[in-house]
Structures are given as C-alpha cells and as structure tokens.
Amino acid sequence: MKAAHLLLMLGLTALAAPAQALNIVLSNDDGFETANVRALYQRLKAAGHDVILSAPTQNNSGKGGSMNFLVPVTPMAKASRHGSVAAGSPGVGKDPGDADVFYVDGTPVMSMLYGLDVQAVKRWNAQPDLVVSGFNEGNNTGLINNSSGTVNNLLYAINRGVPAIAASYEGTEARAHTALAAGALEYEIADVIVKLIGKLEENRVAGQKLLPPGVGININIPKVTAGQAAALPFRFARMGLATEYQPVFFEKLSDSPLAVGFGAGVPLPGISFANASIAPPAGVTIATDNDALSEYNVMETHAIPVTVVEGVPQGRRSNEERVKIQLRGLLGAAP
Description:
With 335 residues, this protein is α/β, with parallel strands linked by helices. It contains eight helices and eleven strands. The termini are far apart.
C-alpha cells in the first residue's frame, strides 16, 4: 500500500510541476518603451521565463520586413518614442532602467535580429527557445500582415529555426510603460499570451522544440474592457484576406476620410486605408473575404483567432501544377 501511495503521489507531483522555463527574445514594432511590450515582458518573467527585450526606438508600424542593409546604425537623430533615451545616444543600446531591455534605432526586424544574433548569444550562448513579437497596438489580420513588423518578426525568426508567436491587441491605446499600474488592462492581455505559451509548453513532445520546424502562431485579441480578457475563447483560424486595414494609394490624402480624421488629410499623394465602412477611391476594388475561419472574422466573434503560419511563401501543389501547364513548352525538366 505504501509503495502504491508513493507512486500515486509521484504521479500527482509530476502533473502539478510547472512548465519548463523558456529562454525568450521579446520584440515588437511599436517601440521598446510601450506599455504593451513591457506588460508582456513583466508577465513572462513572472511566469519564470528568462526574457530579453529588444525593440525599436520609434513606432515602426507598417515597416514589414524592411531592413537597412549594409548601413551602419549611427547615433540617434531624435529621442526615443517616449523619451527615455535622448537624441545623440548610440543607435544600439540598453534601456537606462533595465539591463535586460535593449533598443535599436532601426526597423522592427533589425531590432529582433539584434536580440537573436547578439544578445541571445551573449546570454545563453545559443538561440532562444522562443521569439515573441508584440503585443501590437492594434490588430494584425489577413492581407495587412504582409506589411506588419510584428508578423515579419515572426517570419524571420521561424525561418531561422526559432519558434515564434506574433500577438496583437485590437483595442490598445498607445502609451508609455511608465503609465502601467496594478490592474492595467495591458497585464490582462499579456496574461492571455502567457497562457497560450504555457499550453504549448505543457503539451509539447519531450526533446522537441516548442513548435514544429518552420512554424509560428499569429494571434489577435479582440477589444475588451477590464476583467474580460481571461474569459475570451481561443479558436483556430486561417489568415485569409479579411482585415480592418486595406492599404490604398490616394492621389490626394485629403480624399481619404481616415486620413482626414487622423489630421493627415492634405492634398498630397500617399497611402491611407479603406475597409467595409470606409470607401476607397472610385474605381478601386478592395479584397473581400467572408470566410468564417479567416482570422479577422473570427476575432469579430469576440474570440481569439490562432493562426498557424509558415515562413516560406511556397505555393500549394495544386497552384504549382496549374502554372506548370500554363508554362508548358517553356519550363525545362525538374532536376
């Protein structure tokens, strides 16, 4: 009886044991000082993970996967977004108030790669177990993901063989981490992401990475008020095309209701957005996507869409075969 009781207790102890702590590089495209990323940084550390934060000095929304190739990162021409690092400071450096927080005066992917290629190697002498990008100020769904720095951080990480999660929140106001206080909504959103990571760790196969090779996850958390985030259901989704933000080039930004609303409605050319409620210029057709599984449409049901992402934009076999037929007589034999 005693032996059986001991085995039972050992089994219960194993079930109750916390998930293994992960080495995590955290980044975003809104800046290293934002309330969103710092709330997630704090919550990941509180969950026992070892976290390095490496993010841009400025809000770089919409920069996608851009990088300044073969261009040295020079001293900062202006202060960081929320002013904790002054103009003239080194273009790559450390937050003055936290030794685990780093900044890059460059694009989102540049800052994420700095965390991956420089600080992770210094810290762990290896790549991290996970890259987390976000959580973003505003959602990243459907076709807009091509231009999202948040999502492109994920893509570059998984193409490097590092599991990654991109996370966005539909309703966040842009504010500095110095505004965070106990009970802040940003902490509730961060807890949702920590919960997802914990479930992945709990169920992963022993000896394998957190996610399959070349795979990441894009999640979008719908707008909530205090106390609602923890009850949001998770739903599997597909990226699809549906999005709140469809980029459109306007010959005059003054013709864009959204640009006018943001104070950018000048009679000069530029990019603005259109959607189901904001019409594009005459003659312009915007994409439609009514698939209930598309991540934006799932989010609109007040659920959290979980979209599995692969890093290489390889066409499906059926599309390959159709194009091969159209190019018959031109393509040589496959090697």
